[in-house]
Amino acid sequence: MRLYINYIYELKKLTKILMTLIIFIFILLILPHILPSYYIIFISYALSFAIASLGFNLLLGYTGLLSFGHAVFFAIGAYSVALIARYLPNIYYFEIVILIALISSALFAALIGIIALRVSEAYFAILMLAVSMIIYSLILKFYTITRGSDGLPVPIPKFIGLTIHGISQDVFIVKYYYYILISIFIVSLIIMYLIVSSPFGKALQAIRDNPNRAYLIGINVKLYKYYSFVISGTYVGLAGSLWSIVNMYTSPEVAHWSFSSDIVYMTLLGGYTIFLGPVLGAIIYTLIKLYTVIFTQYWLLASGIIILIISLLFPEGLGGAFLRAYKFLAPLTIKRERKEIREKNRRLR
Amino acid sequence: MIIINGLYYASILYLLSLGLNLIFGVSKLINLTQGSFYSLGAYITAWFISTMLSFYILKGNALLISFSGILLGVIITGLIGLLIEKTVIKYIYNISLERQLLATYGLLLIFMDLERMIWGGNIISAPQPLRLLGELSIDGYHYSIYYLLIIITAFSIGIAVQFLIYKTDLGILFRVVSYDREIASGLGISVKKISTLTFFISALLGGLAGSLMVPITSASLGMELDPLILSFMVAVAGGLGNFWGSLIASIIIGETRSIMIAIFPEIELALIYLIVFIILATKPEGILERKGG
């Protein structure tokens, strides 16, 4: 009986999730028909940032580790695309490039994770910052390979079994790449949801809440933290490689600590306690950037004030604020329903 | 000369990290706004010196003006720090680390744009004190007196802060608040006042670092980012809340920087961060472990 109730509960939850997903996909698919192509490029930016902050949030929101250097994985993803385009144009196929970006960022995360996870809290954040700044300065100074602060161009990739030529990169992004981004984004969203709701994800949350208790109930804390770190690094690397094609260009700035803090900012903006929070944060971050650049030249001031307000007033980000508003409003409808039922019963009596 | 170069940069980093350490030690706050104090001090000093010296009458006492400019920069920065503490910072002492970081990062961005609004995007330079003080030559080597002055100032201020914390009655209050805020307030200590005072002192220190730096590198937008991050590295690598540790770490980083710039400038930046990485990877709690205070 209990199993049955659980099953019904899960089914209800699943249908709810599927409904949100379908609505989400529908909105994303309908957007190119109502918005000018300029905005589609911005949504493409937002989607690639969303993947990054989704991966980052596995570490921050679900494992409780704050890293101040996650831009390093972003940079590795972006630069593996750009370097292949420059030095190995023969294999510059989209599928291969993304695969290589995934593998290289996962390998790098696996390597760094061994050392970085030995320290905790503020020391971990600063250690990751040091890592990202090492990579930043290496990219900056090895001019012959990476062309330093000039950056590297990222042309339109080829596709296996499909060649696209004769169109500009803007048109390519709006006509083809946007849909690829949507599908990759949805797939990574689903995978992340499966990870988070699996026993592994629950174990991570136990570690976040209390590492000692998690250790005592038999969770291998170090190993699980390590897995979480590698997965999150891989996600950010994937986001970097997707972003570089939207941006058509990479520069060392993506490895700089200020970009890491942008990723942190996005995640906290949307709310790191909520699964979809980082996605919301990435979208709002892109919108803020777009509109403050259009309306004022002081975009740092505007985003500084927004950051300050969010950190002071909305501890769970904007997503948390929405949820709280929803929870505040939802009981009203439930109460009304209950009242109706009660009156019905009274009449029957 | 290379050694002196490294030492002066180390003293600037030490001053900045002293402020960070003080706030972290007493109020458990990781304060990115320290970078803003650095750039504010630099901008005010540079602006004061360059405007005052543009008047013909005042050309004669350039040295006096330079030093009053530095003093003014430090004091105004301290007052701005006080203002921020009273308006924003006092609300963020008790929130989580992530939100503290985010809030102070927001303040950092706000100050960056306010500086752009007030002084424009121009670089303001005021190299007069450096030139006026001249050089000291020992055994055929020339040392700039201004550099030596910075090193002496930083060292004496480091000792003064140590003295304040460990030898005075006020220092006892600081240490009590650092151990346990609740018990401190239970004992009748005004935790609020102590936190405000700490923030004020660290704003003064940040302003001083910026003001002292002006004659060497001119005030420009975004000048606070590199010293801020390096001083963070110094504070963390030395062990958060540990004054001697950050002294050692700042000397290591300053010397590495100046030596590598002289020998092999390509990997200077990477090497500095690599050293921090190695320190943290081998000694997770910093060079020296944290003592009380």
> Oligomer, anyone?
heterodimer
- Topology order of chain B in helix (H) and strand (E) letters: HHHHHEEHHHHHHH
Shape of chain A: globular
Outline the biggest β-sheet of chain B: 2 strands, antiparallel
Low-confidence stretches of chain A: none
Summarize the structure.
Chain A is mainly alpha-helical and 349 residues long. Chain A has 14 helices and two strands, in the order H-H-H-H-H-H-E-H-H-H-H-E-H-H-H-H.
Task: Tell me what you see in this structure.
- The complex is a heterodimer of chains A (349) and B (293).
- With 349 residues, chain A is mainly alpha-helical.
- Chain A is globular and about 85 Å long.
- The mean pLDDT of chain A is 82.
- Chain A has a two-stranded antiparallel sheet.
- Chain A is built from 14 helices and two strands; from the N terminus they run ααααααβααααβαααα.
- Chain B has a two-stranded antiparallel ribbon with strand order 1-2.
- Chain B is globular and about 60 Å long.
- The longest helix of chain B has 26 residues, at 2-27.
- Chain B has helices spanning 2-27, 34-52, 62-87, 97-119, 128-133, 145-167, 169-179, 181-186, 191-213, 225-237, 243-263, 268-282; strands at residues 135-138, 141-144.
- Chain B has twelve helices and two strands, in the order H-H-H-H-H-E-E-H-H-H-H-H-H-H.
- The mean pLDDT of chain B is 81.
- Classes of the chains: A mainly alpha (349), B mainly alpha (293).
- Chains A and B meet through helix 5, helix 11 and helix 13 of A and helix 4, helix 10 and helix 12 of B.
Features:
heterodimer; A: 349 residues; mainly alpha; 14 helices; 2 strands; 79% helix; B: 293 residues; two-stranded antiparallel sheet; globular
